[in-house]
User: What shape does this take?
Amino acid sequence: MHPARSIIIFTTLSGLGFGMLVFLGLGMPRVTGGTAFAFFAIAYLLAVGGLLASTLHLGHPERALKAFSQWRSSWLSREGCLAVATLLVMALYGAALVFAGTRIAPLGWLGAALSLGTVYATSMIYAQLKTVPRWNHWTTPALFIGYALTGGSLLCGQISLAVPFLVVLGAAQLAVWQMGDKRFAHSGTTMATATQLGGIGAVRAFEPPHTGTNYLMTEMIHIVARRHVGPLRIIAFALMTILPWLLLFVLPFHHLLAALAVLSHLAGVLVSRWLFFAEAEHVVGLYYGKR
Amino acid sequence: MTTLPNQTEKKLGLVIDLDICVGCHACVTACKGWNTENYGAPLADKDAYGAEPVGSFLNRIHSFEVQPETGPAQLIHFPKSCLHCEDAPCVTVCPTGASYKRTEDGIVLVNETDCIGCGLCAWACPYGAREMDPVEKVMKKCTLCVDRIYNDNLPEEDRQPACVRTCPSNARHFGDLGDPGSDVSKLVAARGGVDLMPEQGTKPVNQYLPPRPKDEEIDVLAPFLAPVTEDPKGFLGWLGKTLERLG
Amino acid sequence: MTQQPQIDTSPHVSDEVRKTTCYMCACRCGINVHMKDGPDGKRQAAYIEGNRDHPVNRGVLCAKGSAGIMQVNAPSRLRAPMKRTGPRGSGTFEEISWDEAYDIAASWLKPLRETAPEKLAFFTGRDQSQSFTSYWAQAFGTPNYAAHGGFCSVNMAAAGIYTMGGAFWEFGQPDWERTKLFMLFGVAEDHDSNPIKMGLGRLKARGARVIGVNPIRTGYNAVADNWVGITPGTDGLFILSLIHCLLKAGKVDLDYLARYTNAACLVNEDPASPEFGLILKDDDGRDLVWDRKEKRPRCFDKPDVTPDLSGSWRNAGYSHRTVFQHIAEKYLSDDFAPEAVAETCGIPAKRIHELAALIAHTAFEEAIEIDQPWTDFRGVKHDKMIGRPVSFHAMRGISAHSNGFQTCRALHLLQILLGSVEVPGGFRFKPPYPKPATIHPKPHYGVKPGQPLDGPHLGFVHGPDDLALKDDGTPARIDKAFSWDNPMSAHGLMHMVISNAHAGDPYKIDTLFLYMANMAWNSSMNTAGTMKMLTDTDESGEYVIPRIIYSDAYSSEMVAYADLILPDTTYLERHDCISLLDRPISEAEAAADAIRWPVVEPDRNVKGFQSALCDLGAKLGLPGFVNDDGSQKYADYGDYIQSHERKPGIGPLAGFRGAGGTKGGRGDPNPDQIKAYIDNGGFWLSHIPQEAQFFKPWNMAYQNWAVDLGLFDKPSPYIFSLWSEPMRRFQLAAEGHGDRQPPEHLRQRIRDTMDPLPIWYPPFEDTLVDTAEYPIHALTQRPMAMYHSWGSQNAWLRQIHGRNPLYVPTRIWQENGFTDGDWGKLTSAHGTITVPVAHMAALNENTVWTWNAIGKRKGAWALDKDAPEATRGFLLNHLIHELLPPKGDGLRWSNSDPITGQAAWFDLRVKIERVAAPAEAQPAFPPIKSPVPKAPANVTQKVRQ
Ligand SMILES: Nc1nc2c(c(=O)[nH]1)N[C@H]1C(S)=C(S)[C@@H](COP(=O)(O)OP(=O)(O)OC[C@H]3O[C@@H](n4cnc5c(=O)[nH]c(N)nc54)[C@H](O)[C@@H]3O)O[C@H]1N2
Ligand SMILES: Nc1nc2c(c(=O)[nH]1)N[C@H]1C(S)=C(S)[C@@H](COP(=O)(O)OP(=O)(O)OC[C@H]3O[C@@H](n4cnc5c(=O)[nH]c(N)nc54)[C@H](O)[C@@H]3O)O[C@H]1N2
Ligand code: SF4
Ligand code: SF4
Ligand code: SF4
Ligand code: SF4
Ligand code: SF4
Ligand SMILES: [Mo]
Assistant: This one.
């Protein structure tokens, strides 16, 4: 799939933002007043910034409001609704913390749940797609939630949680890469099922319907991007798990190091998210003899 | 509108005969011509005369080479447009309700004024049947010529999709695949029509008729010719006798 | 469920439908142009669909036809007459008025006409107004006129006409309704584009078998039930081998051969006789057959004659034997046994045996009968029509070779031996065919300054006496048509004009006047050489070809090489007639013709070329173009179409003649004729009576109908020429008989190639290049969605074919270690190109190919200079020379069929090598300056939102 910048930024930032909101909702850390404001501001910047970035991807952003209407069936719509609900609930909850210094715990729990729900909904936009076998698996939401929790815990300074999260996330990501690599082959969709010509013999794409490119090819077929996958996986892995873990766990604690760990993690997530898209192959590529 | 109807009154769709499609692309430009001038925004072409022209088309012709175990490779031209799936994933993913499946005939359409151009429906379609218009930025797809098939301003015989009407080799057929008695259903039954990517669970309405077997031995039909004679003299003898018989 | 949107399923379709004829190619389909009033209130063409009533396409359209809207709106359309201001080839022009354009043209042409009319060479491309353009050239008085047939398919056309009085092409068709076995030789698309597709669809629906004989398995050959991936240039041998098998098994239609062909005619057998090899004639010069009942030679058309295929006769000391005996003797030879030809043809012997058996089985065991009595030209009454349901079609794959004429003849011989021509289930002619070769005109070349030519330029020769030679024996025509080089060149040799004019061989010309032919690019061999010849100067700095006038509608590559441009309209903006005098739209069941008319008004200062010729003809005072008082005769082409009479009562259009438009065929001019055509959907049709539907060359009902319609002046039945006397006459001359003798250097070739019975010889290039060094055959095919060079300016079509890879078969692909995205260097004896390659398995293992005419010159067609057509697209033409490689005799022979002069595009031999990808396809030429403004970036074509 085309690793569109807006979508990478959207999923990464909003994942982090809603991840933070999970922890804030659970009162980790327990902050009030100005500190609370700072935490909430960062969380909202990430969450809302991500959402705004996603509208850059739209052909008609001016009609974006319509996207809230189909929550009954559409994960994209659900994600929008949940995000708004989360932001509203957490705004109330945050306002109480910042201005009244009180923590309305049930509201925080609700907000945390909604935040997780939002991240889940985001992930389901991808995981629901049978057309992209690499994504079409429960590990996609698991990983998205893992990213949100890890990033959120880091940003919320929950080092004791972050360190195990980093380990688990790292292991999970490795496993997902491993499993994901085989999933297209296991999906059962092949050139033979796509064309139903397999009964005659081995099928090969001959001439494409058009000699130039088209929307489908630019959107769904990214052979070039995938050429760099090997090294990028190492970079992503190092940046998002190993380096933060070293900085936080192996080296003596320092705020600067913690900040570096967060930035490193963020960078790693961006790379892995780029890979999430670039490595994903859409079945339509079969019609073009490319994936 | 994003939920799918439980059932549609008809299942209108196309039947595409891979045995006779010569890959002429006639259906491609007829479709482009009709749909540019009719339903929704025109099908635009970006950089139309430039280095990388990209236009939206609702129907495209692929071609595949198939290598049987014995015998020469075969080439198959393969038209592809929206299959108007019964379980259309493109519809259920749509956040705005712009994509919908009509209850009366099962046609899957995009209501362009509601479309935000998010592209998710195109991602959800396994067949590559949806293309974002490069200029208008709304999702485009085959309308099954919904503005032809019921159009009172067209003569009865023309109330069929533009691509079907134009196909010179008659490789495209239109009708109600929900009605087992329709011509198209009978054709599908007779020729063993198939779904594309059945494992995707989309239950496409459009059906593909597989190519008939090619390069079959012909000597079964007509055994080698027996010579009337082995030498030219003998041939003249045969000729004389035969002419006698002809009178 | 929420409510589903309400949509208008019955929108207004258009404000008006105008019916005319497509011209996105030469197939001439009927179209309905839907007109809508735009926002400015102007009525515009909005949508084009096929006309259901039209005999050619019955409602369907091809990809090009439906994309016509984008042609009519193309930014490449020329806008006004232009005169060249920069050097030739640069593309710098100044727009001028029509008056100035005519003044310039007249100032060049008038002096020529008065002194040496042959110094004007007027050649036209694939237009459909040859009866008009030749009329103009005749009035001018130059012998140097032809259309493009010589580089196109004259082998097919001429072989058909000489052998059976009509050709495939668009002049005949298989009996789609009844045929059970259809064999297609060397066709990718053809002129009959839609009818062939429709026909194939019908065959498939009926379960009839289709066999494709073609090195490449795409398109029609891809849907064929069986594919014969023949080695290029060997079809003749393959066909003669089928004939061998059929003869050997006695599977030929003896009755048909005896009645309807010259198989029973008596051939002079005596080498000493001046008539050696000619057919015995009566005192009136009519063919004699051996009568089996009366045991004597009798004229072939005697009512009670019983022609005997096995007869022989000694007369005046000379022995004679029937043509059929020659045929049997020749083809029963083991040289034609499947086992002997298999390797050359690349077809296993078993397969040839199988095919012969299948053909025989279908023709004779599955014969069909129609209960339709008819009477033949001998007065014999037949109570039914017997059909042999085997049919064939062929085109440039067999004709564009230097052995093409004989190969086409071989195919016709096969058809005729089966008795499958003009019978139910077989091949059928379309009016004005069938027509004996002898009633076609002969070539005329009698030049008198200030006078019209002494007759039509092109025609059919029947022996050395008919050649267009000057008194000194040198060619009278600039293209050397009808000379010993290629005696039966019925369509001229457009591909030799520029190179001959440049060489001054046979003489120099002054003005080259071209219409609708992209000679500086895809329609020439040796493209770079042609561009050089067009721009070459002599010692005095003058251009070697001093003046070039060109008419095009678009900014093609050729425009840059002209001095004066006459901008044409697009096909929706002008009058045209698709005439029975030319290439009409007839079907096997009916005679039909059609028009084009201005369904939209041009928005530029352009004029239909034919109308411009009416103006220019009048300005030059050409007879036929001025009234007695010297005033202009035809206001425009529309006027000519309606009021011109070729013969009394016969004009360009056969329909709606006479006062009130009630007459068909013959009748006085009708001033409302075009209107009547428009009201009738743009065409006119006259059905052939049921009784006259088959056996047309011999069917008196047909012959009488054709006379009534004006196709003939009197009934003209004839028998098919299996033995070609015209060819034998040339051969006889080459053997030393007669006083018109070929030049020595051509003698042997004429003896070898002009056999009166079909033969096969290897393509010339094979014998002149080292086939071990150049082991590969290189071909082109027409893409169904493109018409030569015109398609690339069409925003829709160019997305389908914006570049063209070279397709390489598996063996060569693997041997060279090619992978996807690679480039290859392709070298012929003449040149080298470096191009993208792609793998194809369904391909003859010694053949590479590409789509024709996709490659474009930078700066042409209003395309961006980085357009893929110009950077990755390429032409094979750079590898093909108009002359064959030297063979050491000091002469360069034309790369053409020795009989007709047909350009041998498909004889090309090459070698290939994997190379690093260059920045763009090679050779690359500098851009030409565009004479039209830059194209818009995006297109959102919609008349009314
Ligand atoms: N390698 C290779 N070369 C080939 C062939 C091949 O098979 N292989 N085929 C050969 C054959 S058979 C042919 S017929 C030739 C065809 O070659 P051309 O006859 O050169 O064909 P086009 O490219 O169509 O060029 C015709 C010109 O007519 C112009 N034109 C189009 N419409 C109009 C109009 O309405 N009015 C006027 N005045 N001009 C118009 C176009 O702009 C173009 O410049 O190519 C030959 N060249
Ligand atoms: N769409 C479209 N239609 C056209 C045209 C166009 O440009 N585009 N051009 C028109 C013109 S001018 C013409 S002349 C006609 C030509 O119509 P076609 O005769 O169909 O012309 P080509 O495309 O050159 O196809 C030649 C075919 O012959 C095959 N071939 C080559 N060599 C051999 C051989 O030795 N043996 C056999 N058996 N096959 C061989 C090639 O593989 C190819 O399939 O088409 C006309 N129609
Ligand atoms: S028009 Fe018909 S034959 Fe041509 S590509 Fe389309 S389906 Fe195939
Ligand atoms: S083919 Fe694709 S666009 Fe059409 S209904 Fe099925 S999933 Fe949707
Ligand atoms: S692109 Fe339009 S139709 Fe498709 S999912 Fe998005 S809003 Fe719906
Ligand atoms: S049915 Fe209509 S919209 Fe669909 S492919 Fe055919 S012409 Fe195009
Ligand atoms: S075959 Fe196509 S381009 Fe040619 S006349 Fe017919 S519709 Fe037009
Ligand atoms: Mo041609």
Observations:
- Chain C touches chain B through 112 residues (CB under 8 Å).
- The first helix of chain C runs from residue 63 to 66.
- The radius of gyration of chain C is 27 Å.
- The CA atoms of residues 452 and 799 of chain C lie 48 Å apart.
